[in-house]
Amino acid sequence: MAAPTIERTGESEDSYESRQVAQLDGTNLIRVGARPGLFRYIREIWSFRHFLYYDSHSRVSTANSTDSLGRLWMILNPLLMGAAYFFVFGMLLNTGRGIDNFIGYLIIGVFTFRFFTTAVSGGAGSIAGNQKVVQAFNFPRACLVISSTVRELFSSVPMFFVMGLLVLTIGDIKLDGAESIPTTLSWHWLLFFPCIALALMVMLGWSLALARAVNAHTDVKHLISFGTRILFYTSAVFFSPDRWSNIGADWLVTVMNLNPLYCVLDIIRHAWLYDGFADPARWIVLASWAVGSMIIGFLIFWQGEESYGKER
Fold first, then answer.
1. For residue 20, what are the β-bridge partners?
2. Strand boundaries in 112-245, DSSP class E
3. C-alpha dihedral over 234, 116, 79, 282, to 10 degrees?
4. Helices (H) and strands (E) in the chain — how many of each?
5. Which helix (H) or strand (E) holds 165?
6. Nearest alpha-carbon partner for 130 in 216, 31, 215, 36
7. C-alpha angle with apex 96: 95 to 97, nearest 5 degrees?
8. What is the distance between the alpha carbons of residues 295 and 284, in angstroms, rounded to a whole number?
9. Strand locations in 10-49 (E)
């Protein structure tokens, strides 16, 4: 800001009117809600990184605070869901026939599927569900979607510990028509971390793209629910992909092999249950989805930056 100047009017030094004129440099100012350049937008998101961490952490700490069991529901929900799936699909429909360590197979499928879909659904509704915040403050709107995804990761940490404990203790119980492979801790279990990191990239990319769609048309949230059901049946959560091959539906096997969530489940199952590596194609497909989803989803969201928070 330049130094103020004094303008004097009148005929003498003793009788004049003074006025201070402040000159402001507005080159770095932008219109509220305006979309900044792509690289500036990324820098602004980075500057909010501490807020993203503390916001996600505080929301996880207060989650389920009104329930009697509190945060224990983060673990009970997938446990009860897994028990229901085991009773219906494992015992009544016998979909686990021929799957080695089916209980562990089902536990990994149910827990990881819930983590994936909950993160995407929460991120997709993060803009439409926070209109007051979007309208009141000027900040990169992508922070809300990123915060939602990080929050789901934080809240799922205890769930993943329970998942690993269950796989170690009851995951290798022998059922009729299948073999029991002893489950032990090994360095293969560490493959879980890069696998989940790639899964997070996929989830964030999908959430960014869907958040713009839900903000523009709230009916999209119903399509997300429908898409989640399709994802459930094409991810081999409770059955083997061989089931499709046995009925001649090889095209469904191809769709499943290109499904990023199925790749995540297959990688974790091979590492935790069978102490080995999944097909390298699973890593290639998952990494391709991760990079592609992040780039495309981020660009889609950034292009709609000026539309968020507007009255409809």
1. 6
2. none
3. 50
4. 12, 2
5. helix 142-170
6. 215
7. 95
8. 17
9. 17-21
Give the separation between CA 210 and CA 224, rounded to whole angstroms.
Answer: 8
In angstroms, rounded to a whole number, what is the distance separating the alpha carbons of residues 312 and 310? 6
State the CB neighbour count (10 A cutoff) for residue 76: 13
Cα R_g (the chain), whole angstroms: 26
Local mean pLDDT, 10-residue blocks, the chain (312 residues): 49 52 60 76 90 78 58 73 73 68 88 92 90 84 92 87 87 71 87 96 96 90 89 86 72 89 95 91 96 96 87 61
287 contacts 201 by C-beta, under 8 angstroms: no
Q: Could you say which DSSP state residue 5 is in?
A: E
Contact 148, 301 (CB under 8 A): no
User: What's the gap between Cα 136 and its chain centre?
Assistant: 25
**CA-to-CA distance for 226 and 90, rounded, in angstroms?**
24
Residue in 205, 218, 211 with CA at minimum distance from that of residue 312:
218
Amino acid at 12: S
What are the CA-CA distances from residue 136 to residues 185, 234, 275 (Å)? 50, 41, 52
Supply φ then ψ for residue 178, to 5 degrees.
Answer: -145, 165
